[in-house]
Write a structure and sequence with these properties.
Length: 480
């Protein structure tokens, strides 16, 4: 029995010895990323309809060759369930070198993942060189300390680095989707150019984690133009179909009191600050569209007036949001699923064991409407690449299996996982967690440590601010 990960659509076993011929045949009837791999007495034949299919057929052949002394006669027929199969790495909270990223991209390619979502900016660091605004990297890419540890964290990617990563990914049929998070998670930009916020005060690149109240001012034209300029340069660096605009966790406390934001709200007859975020995001979406790009936003940034052409990435979950997800997907909105309880790989294995990731059920009524799935690796508490790998693997293997082949059998997955883990670690020196389903006690300890780690002296203040933001937002909503 062959063990292939992600699981192919069908494997039919034959008899005899595989011959010496090697042919590739174009078959336009096959799906774009699909392939047929035939090993028989004549030899090896790969049938494909695009270079992507050819690439995935070769990846499967490689896995077969690694587990058999002599190639078996077999026909593998294959195509992915979802066109969007992603992995996000947060390079803002901690910086990872191009070589470190390439190692993970190699693993992604073997898993037949095809979207590398590159989280490049956040409160704690701006990691992409923007020629028009040099202070973004001069100031914004340097964090002097993290939660009082006195250790500097810095680094950014030059245009050359980006070209290198984009080309490396393109050779593996992976699209690189850059994320410039706005209007929230924007402290590193404000630290570089204080006039971008509502109050214009000088801030430091943030040395703490969590949600930040100082966000980009949606009322000032100079902020809107700055964001458009940045996106213009980003669009020229990345040949991707999509650019991610973030949009998550943007408290409106400053907007309520800002004369520029109030003026914008009135000028455009917007009902509330959530709609103001929608207006701001739509400006960016229109700008990206003029540059030939589609936008993605996180679901908590998706307001009622959000442009229907933007894709939405669902990370937040609640029964109301799940209903909204179903409604949006049925309406034809492109939706990407990253439910945090299941697909956030920075969570300890005790909180999100491998089985939980594997067992995530895509709401059945939209199983065939979603664009795809994405695993995310936030790096607040992941400061080196070994930790990154131990958190990502093998949970990313489960996500890739689901994104390629849909619902599967966990016991069957575990067998394939063992074989794949050996294959991948022989090929690329990555670290894979060997006990991704910890015992009950270890699991509880993991969860406790995780929450203790999150708590710091800012926690209560931030919680108070967020409660106030929610209170004001709901009052304003009631007044409508
Ligand atoms: C997110 O986790 N703030 C998208
Ligand atoms: Zn403002």
């Amino acid at each position: 029995m062959l063990n292939i990960l992600p699981k192919p659509k069908s494997i039919v076993y034959g008899y005899g010895t595989v011959g010496d011929e090697y042919v590739v045949t174009l078959d336009k009837e096959l799906p774009e990323e699909g392939y047929r791999l035939i090993l028989n007495e004549k030899g090896i034949e790969i049938q494909y309809s695009s270079d992507k299919g050819k690439f995935y057929a070769a990846a499967t052949l490689d896995q077969i060759a690694a587990q058999c002394e002599t190639l078996p006669c077999v026909t593998v027929e294959d195509a992915p369930k979802y066109p969007y199969r992603g992995f996000m790495i947060d390079c803002a909270r901690h910086f990872f070198t191009v070589e470190e990223l390439k190692k993970q991209i190699n693993v992604m390619a073997e898993l037949k993942l095809n979207k590398f979502h590159w989280h490049l900016t956040d409160d704690q660091g701006w990691r992409i060189e923007i020629k028009k605004y040099p202070l973004l990297t001069e100031i914004g890419s340097v964090r002097l300390s993290t939660r009082g540890d006195g250790r500097e964290v810095k680094g950014f990617y030059t245009a050359e680095d980006i070209k290198d990563v984009v080309e490396f990914c393109a050779e593996r049929f992976i699209e690189v989707i850059p994320e410039i998070d706005m209007p929230g998670h924007f402290t590193s930009a404000i630290a570089s150019y204080p006039e971008l916020s509502c109050h214009g005060r000088q801030l430091k690149v943030s040395e703490r984690f969590g949600i930040h109240r100082d966000i980009a001012c949606a009322g000032k034209d100079e902020t809107v133009n700055f964001c458009k300029d940045v996106l213009g340069e980003v669009a020229s660096l990345f040949p991707s179909e999509y650019v991610h605009l973030g949009g998550d966790e943007a408290p409106k406390l400053n907007w309520y009191e800002c004369e520029h934001c109030r003026k914008r709200l009135e000028e455009h007859s917007l009902a509330d600050e959530k709609e103001l975020q929608g207006w701001f995001t739509n400006e960016m979406i229109a700008h990206l569209a003029s540059l030939g790009k589609k936008a993605v936003v996180w679901n908590d940034g998706a307001s009622v007036n959000l442009d229907k052409n933007a894709a939405v990435q669902y990370w937040k979950q609640s029964s109301a949001l799940d209903k909204e997800l179903v409604k949006e997907a049925k309406k034809g909105r492109e939706v990407i699923l990253s439910p945090f309880f299941y697909f956030y790989f920075d969570y300890p294995h005790g909180m999100t064991p491998l089985k939980k990731t594997f067992d995530y059920k895509i709401p059945s009524e939209i199983e065939n409407n979603v664009k795809g799935l994405e695993g995310t690796l936030w790096t607040e508490y992941v400061s080196d690449v070994r930790k990154l790998e131990l958190m990502a693997y093998p949970r990313l293997f489960a996500l890739a299996d689901k994104a390629w082949s849909g619902e599967g059998d966990y016991t069957d997955f575990l067998v394939r996982l063992d074989v794949f883990a050996e294959f991948i670690t022989d090929k690329f020196p990555v670290a894979v967690t060997v006990k991704p389903n910890p015992s009950f006690l270890k699991g509880k300890k993991d969860v406790l440590m995780f929450f203790l780690n999150i708590l710091d002296r800012n926690t209560l203040r931030v919680a108070r601010e967020l409660r106030k933001d929610k209170r004001i937002a709901s009052k304003r909503k009631r007044k409508r």
